[in-house]
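Most newcomers find our protein records easier to grasp once they have seen one. Nothing more is needed to start thinking about how sequence determines fold. Here is such a record, shown just as it appears in the course material:
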Amino acid sequence: MKHNAFSTKILSTENKGKIQKSGVCGSKKGIFDLRAYLEIIYFCGMIRRGFLTLCAILATLAVFAQGDNTTASRGSRTVDTLDGLVLRTMTFDGSQVFGSNQAVFILEVQRSSGYSLRFAHEERRTPTSAMALKNGAAAAVNGSFFDMEQHFPICHLRIDGVDKGENTPGKDTVNRKYYQYGAICIEGDSVFIVKTDSSRRWEETLPFSNVMTAGPLLIKDHVRQPLRGDRTFVTKRHNRTALGILDSGDVLLVVADGRFRQAEGLTLFELQEFMETLGCRDAINLDGGGSTTLFLNAGGRRGVANHPSDNGRFDHYGERPVSNAIMVVKKQP
């Protein structure tokens, strides 16, 4: 079955350096200002199927806004400031969100934080934590998809102008796989998410020095993008990693644990709804499952924050070696 290609929409060279500064998410208090979220709900008309989800997450945001890091009777909400980065941890039980147990970690990288994003790649699969330490990163999440046996990326990957991987077509597609219909682009300290064309080497035309193809695209310009309900990759719950961009240009790196009783994981429909609720203007899915990892090396914390599932235990030691990752590094003076 051939996937319906998303329409092409590329940031022009003239506009690629411009960051949209308007919107309710640009508050100095950060993205989790309750007032801002109420405005988002009002203007986006989010009173629909996800009402209970919104209520649960807004309750969490209210706790954050008040600076209260206590544990609620059914679930916990914590916030940590790590040398300018903000880590928010949300834990829900089955009665609170999506009718399931969930553990979600949200790393907020504000444009004013003194950090920027970079891609990393190794010829042989390497844990995200090892790549982070090698590159002196303050934090990192796993990146895009790769070949487990051959180690190389199976999505287009360009780092500092050098191509490291190309799109590998699937059995039921001519040019690219379902999870190759979006891309993260980095130029300097600016991060963009773009829709891809259906041609296999479309990314080669992009003017950015750093490009990581992934997907599917979840949200573009505050609009939910189509997801295929005939793919178990979409409809079943798994560990998930995603990147979102707010109206302010701030970036969210989101990791949801999965495959455990304590954290069942998200479908892509649920992940899409969650990213929308966080106020993302644009959002994209990354590699997930056993690859899902958030590593921290800032604010006195050094280690894997989430619970990678490859060892089958709900601890911090089941990290899977991956081909590429997204680093959070200190900006160069």
